[in-house]
Design a protein that fits this description.
DNA-binding, mainly alpha
Chain lengths: ~180, ~180
DNA sequence: CTCCTGATGTCAGTTGCTGTCATCAGGAAG
DNA sequence: CTTCCTGATGACAGCAACTGACATCAGGAG
């Protein structure tokens, strides 16, 4: 038996989401989150760089999945096509945790600093996507553009998915992509 | 003659940019900025909500210009076409202050919190563009998509413009738009 | 002349975040 | 078994961002 309760990070994330939902991000102190998780404030900051980051622990895994999926897209796919395929592929990760994603999104949208942080995560995803595209031989300017537009599609699709009980995220990604094609016709 | 030196905001903005360039955003305290501007820390926070915001004073004017330009686009223009036309129209505002924009961008890119704030400003612009499009009778989903994609084009064009001495921003916007069309062919 | 307004100063306080050192269970090495 | 080391944690002091409350006072309105 180990000296401390296991899964400190998980406890911190749960405590933080619960408290943010109860009273709002600004009304919660880091000391309270740590206390509910049976830890101290100092330990919170050893696991998360700041008070916002605790809500974005999953973004690294998402990025990895996306990059892998881009690399695995058919060789004949266009840059944007590969990105869209990758976005569709990770859709299941969201579908499986619908309720958690919804709660998290409500908290994020209620606070400016959290919206800020989310945008940074999306921009980081765009950078990673662009790098993955370059790895497929796509030239840098085209890779940047496809990645940015892909993230724009994802943002639109995600909003529609959160508001659509039961629908699959991948379907919304495909729909947004189709809308873009139509809009450019 | 008035009681205080005029243009307190302008002095704060100049002092902040100068200090951020000299030592980097994190190494500068708000008290120092205020001191260089002949004011106190408390007064700084009366003009700007936080230490980052002082670098983004111009974004409100930019948003207003963009919204006006979208409203003024030809009635026959597609949603994305109207957004692109608006982006081209505001290009001159940037061309006229090339060096200032460049210095500001160097400071912003050197710091994570500032990059975060910039993304928020761009997202806010996207929201305003979408609203302006709805004002032209564009349905909400198409308006959101055109606005997001328009901002994606702007981000790409801006990066290219900053790295291209002498080129006009509007030209880079047109080029990015053309690239997108080509990529979807 | 008086009163009011608005930009500023002063000061105390909360909290996010960091540096530093102490603690101590359990595994590795002897 | 004893010793040493490692890694996660706690304890504590401190800085700086940001806020609320109250004071100040030049100049305009009346």
């Amino acid at each position: 038996m180990s000296r401390w309760e296991p899964n400190a990070r998980g406890r911190l994330e749960q405590a933080a989401l619960a408290l943010y939902r109860e009273r709002g991000f600004e009304q919660v102190t880091v000391a309270e989150i740590a206390g509910r998780a049976g830890l101290t404030e100092r330990t919170f900051f050893r696991h998360y760089a700041d008070k916002r980051e605790v809500l974005f622990a999953g973004s690294a895994a998402l990025q990895e999945s996306l990059v892998t999926a881009v690399a695995a897209a058919p060789a004949a796919a266009t840059p944007l096509g590969a990105v869209v395929a990758a976005l569709e592929a990770v859709g299941e990760q969201f579908d499986a945790r619908r309720e958690l994603a919804r709660q998290r999104q409500v908290v994020i949208e209620a606070n400016r600093e959290l919206r800020e942080r989310e945008l940074v995560k999306l921009a980081t995803l765009a950078d990673a996507l662009a790098a993955a595209l370059r790895g497929r031989g796509v030239a840098a300017p085209a890779a940047d553009l496809a990645a940015e537009v892909g993230i724009a599609l994802f943002k639109v699709a995600f909003v529609r998915w959160v508001g659509d009980d039961g629908g699959k995220l991948a379907a919304h990604v495909r729909a947004a992509f189709a809308d873009l094609r139509d809009g450019l016709r």
